[in-house]
Target: Glycosyl hydrolase family protein
Amino acid sequence: MTPQFLFATGIENSNPTIQGGKVRVDEMEKCGHYEHWRTDFDLVQELGISFLRYGPPIHTTFLGPGKYDWTFADKTFNDLRRRDIVPIVDLCHFGVPDWIGNFQNPDFPVLFAGYACDFAKRYPWVQLYTPVNEMYICAEFSALFGWWNEQLHSDQSFVTALKNIVKANVLAMRAIAKVRPDSIFIQSESSEYFHAENPAAIRPAELMNSRRFLSLDLNYGRRVDSEMYEYLMDNGMTREEYHFFLKNNLKHQCIMGNDYYRTNEHRVCADGTTRAAGEVFGYHVITRQYHDRYRLPVMHTETNLWQGPCGDEAVNWLWKEWANVLRVRNDGVPIVGFTWYSLTDQVDWDTALRENNGKVNPLGLFDLDRKIRPVGEAYKQLIKDWRQVLPAQSVCLQVPIIMPSESNEEWAQEKQDQAQKAQQDHSTAPANVASVEP
Model:
């Protein structure tokens, strides 16, 4: 086994509901993946990519407690294994099945953990997981902005969604780790920053810059800032619920995934309203903030930009993001991978999936006719140029990445046995002690 830098892309599988839960926004369907999945996997290999952010559609797979339709998942995951493509399995991407309802449902965490456990048992060769994608954004868009799923607009509904989503992620990690002791969790989360537009905006900006960390603080068992503790308690979280997160001891199996788009930085007005700031600090500065807080290996797990009228806008953005990745690495942060998201163009993300317009967004490495875009050509060349140059930084992990083709090897089983023993050792360690350090 040779450690390698994780050059990745993803198949967009967002599936929230809108219009009071009456309309399901299924990006896999809108982007044609159900019909063209074989071709899509061909394109991944054409680019020289071995790592794919990918997951089954939860709303059509998870039919009830212990009830599943694995038909599509069996086809696709068996083919990924045959191709020796490593999936970073995205089990919940902004939506839940109709029978669960939405993220206000207190039963969601336990139900989801059961789903994650049964997935891991069915596909034991899978090692890399993002149980719940962008937990902060999912809670914010669903329960604070009122755009998706429950479509609520209060701090209390936001805290309820957040605690349910993060608890689901934690319980899923625990369940998966029992099945696959050497599993690695790459938590894809939006990396945000809020800039005060004037002195009167400093206070609301400070609050937002504290709130942006809540999902990862809870997920990694880090004590939140005192003001955020009061915020959580004032909006429905109990002490017992908070202490549950402090007892999470799987940080040693985690990679912090940082997503960065040009929309991740915000200008804050005095009244607390925000608007897009564009790229001010950039990925390098903001990722250093997150790394300084959590001290975990990092992966750049999402970025993209529209291909504009000149045709080179996305290509230039790719170059800029890669330059930021190299800057982060050269500053001593253990960064293990980079992702252009997604493989193909997306649909209706110009309205953040709030409207069902069918508008194609030219964000992909390929268009929806599966023809390569200039950024696809540029990414393919970037991978070719840098793959052998970068030293393997995955040595900072306690458990190595095992390719699907290696999963039945004797040494791979020995690694799982070692990971299981390490897991048992960590289970007896005090909270917040277990961690991965470079």
Notes: The domain at 6-427 is CATH 3.20.20.80 (TIM Barrel).
